């Protein structure tokens, strides 16, 4: 299933000093400086290091895609080729597949919710290969689901909300899922693809809501509640755009953009994610890696500045998901780095100009090179 060795597209150079790099500090670009990669982390001593001249290119923390679906090691390497050094998987099973993907080296770091919690009548229950153990009908089912996932070593819990009457878990079950996850020291991500599901997801108290509604702009009351509850959103506009393109070709996506603009204007923390997937079953195919750059462009259309967008894919998801070893470029942090040509703080499309990528210090061949 997986390999513990880097693929032919990656290599470990040992100690490396990247000189003349303009480093993004989370707000702006600093004057050209030297960043040292010492094994798997960012070091301080450049003595004896192999020198790489960035020649004024921009060095960013590796990107985190906060909503992907991974079922093969190659997808982790595809993420890395586009500068995505961490993939937060939102549904992967069985447990031995999750364990195998964790052992992949040289590609994006893999974190997972394992098997999601779903209702017995919603669209997810009809997806090919869905495990019957995913179905939760009662609060006790939800508590058992969380305990089982925790025993498998998941990083967080994933639940699926549907609009009332659409076959998803009840509000009571979603509340039990979130409460049980907290008791086990895990955060919860709740899927919500419609306005009605959104209200249920927000009321569940989950730390993260993923997607924006397909059927209209989010209710302002839900946005206010999310702000008050300090809930974060992973919009995945790329996936929602893909679904609309399939069911209603040429349909406008203005309401997707408007929802994210309203969330941003309402002070809700936004985290970048795509719902990247290539397996059969999901309503739209979203390519791994490249799709995050498209998501950035949609976020810009919603009114986020380039610097805000970069934070949405680096320091924000790292802090929100408890990944304290990444998201910033600083000594001792994981050497997840992305070197790009151009200035992404002025033009977010510059993130596509990938020159070099390092995942925990292992250099990975960038896309198109």
Automatic annotation (TrEMBL):
Q: Where is the Amidohydrolase-related domain?
A: 58-361
Superkingdom is Bacteria
Pfam family of the protein (one): Amidohydro_1
The record's annotation in InterPro entries points to: Amidohydro-rel (IPR006680), DNase_TatD-rel_CS (IPR018228), Metal-dep_hydrolase_composite (IPR011059), Metal_Hydrolase (IPR032466), Metallo-dep_Hydrolase (IPR051781)
Q: Which GO terms describe its molecular function?
A: hydrolase activity, acting on carbon-nitrogen (but not peptide) bonds
Report if keyword Hydrolase is assigned.
yes
Coiled-coil segments: none
What keywords is this UniProt entry annotated with?
Answer: Hydrolase
Kindly provide the name given to this protein in its UniProt entry.
Answer: Amidohydrolase family protein
